[in-house]
Amino acid sequence: MSPSKIPTEPGGRRLLLAVDAPSLLHRNHHARAETGLVDRGGRPAWALHGMLRQIIEAIEQFAPDAVIFGIDDRVSSVRESFYPEYKAGRAPKDAALVDQLERAGALLDALGLATLTPPGLEADDVNASAATWARDNDWNCVIVTSDRDSFAHISDHTQVLRLINGGMANSPLLNPTRLRALYGVDASNYLDFAALRGDASDNLPGVPGIGEKTAPILLDAMGSMDAVWADIDHCEGATMVAALDSWAEEHGVRRLGATLLKRLTAPGARERYDFNVKIMGGQDDLDLGLTPDVPGTPGLLPLDVERVARVLGHLNVPATTTMAMRVLTGAPASSAAHWT
Question: What is the number of structural domains in the chain?
Answer without folding.
Answer: 2
